[in-house]
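Hi C.,

You asked whether I'd gotten around to modeling the 152-residue construct. I have! Everything is below, sequence then structure, no commentary in between.
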Amino acid sequence: MEPLRRRKQIAIVAGAVFLAGLLPAGHPAFGQTPPHFYNVDKETRVEGTVEDILMEPRYEARAPFLVVILEEKDTRRRISVEVSPAWFFKEDIHKGERLKVVGSLYGSGEGIVNLIAREVQCRGRTITVRDKRGFPTWSGGRRIRGGQGTGA
C-alpha cells in the first residue's frame, strides 16, 4: 500500500508542476494584466480613432474593464486605453469614432502603448473616470456613486 500512496503523491506534485509551467514566469494569471497604477508624472494626452472595444478581466475578483484600442492618425501608433469598470462607463463608444484621452502611461507593451484613462472626450463631452491625482471616481462602489463620472 505504501508504494501506491507514494505514486499518488508523485502524480500530484508532477501535475502541479505541469500546471505551474503553463503560466509564463513573472506574468499574472490568465486574463489579468501586470500590476500597474496611475502615475501623474507620466500623464499625457492622446487622440485617435477607435479600432476595437474590449471588456477584459483586468483585476482578480473584479468586474470586467472597458478597454479601448485607439490608433493615432499621424503616427499610426496603437494605444490600449484602460477606461474603467464596464458597469461605470455609460457612454456608447463605436469603432471608427474619434476620442481624446488624458491618462497615465504604463508598462512597455510591444507595438502598443498602454494608458490608464483619467478623462475621455467623446462627441464633445468629457467623462472624468479618475480625479486629478489618479484615484478612481468609482472607488465608492456602484451603490454609492451610482454610475458614470462627471462631465465637463
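If it helps when you're writing up: Strands lie at 43-56, 65-71, 78-85, 98-106, 112-122, 125-128.

Thanks,
B.
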